[in-house]
What does this fold into?
Amino acid sequence: MLRHIGLALCVVLGSTALGAANKEQARLENCGVVMQEILDVPDNIPQDLLQKAECVVVIPSMTKIAVGIGGSSGRGAMVCRSGATFQGPWGAPAMYALEGGSFGLQLGVESTDVVLLVMNKRGVDALLSSKVKLGGNASAAAGPKGRNVEASTDASMRAEILSYSRARGLFAGISLEGTSVRPDDDASEQVYGHKMTARDIVTGKGMSVPASGRHLVDVLEKNAPRNESKTTANR
It folds into this structure.
């Protein structure tokens, strides 16, 4: 009898662990779906900005923490270009969390997809080091959209991180000042099967992209295969 109980307990615990892992892998897969949908919108992220980004953070379905407070939380993934100077192909994704702040969810929208473009090494270093407060530890601005090259160039020169949101089918740049972004190493452990920091994943050599992150990386490779900021600087 005790043997049967023990076996049943092992099955339950094993199923729970497997479910947690699948949950984070499903979240990562959804990041790819969201990024593809956003880039399919005619008036989306300017191509020249995406091509100059060092990293991209995708947070699907960011939601309110509590009604009336205006706080919010969401989880997703960050993908960076590989190599010491971010000139290589898009690398393996690290899981991230975005928390706090008030940026419009209180206007009746309960769920918002968020995309952040990290435009330079200083922004990347801040996000890899610890919890970052946008507008504090790292300069942030609402990203321009469409094909306005002049506006996008001006924004990329001024901000380390550009932010966008999609809610109820509407896509726009949005200010996330006061919001915190941090590595979600527990979620990354669920995706990769062993403990890893965001820095290990992003800067590690020979890191393989997990199957659940393949769609997200493929979308970025297709739409921004080269880091044009490095190409321009070398001309």
Remarks:
- The beta strands are 55-64, 72-80, 94-99, 111-118, 132-133, 140-142, 161-167, 170-173, 180-183.
- Residues 1-20 have pLDDT under 50 and may be disordered.
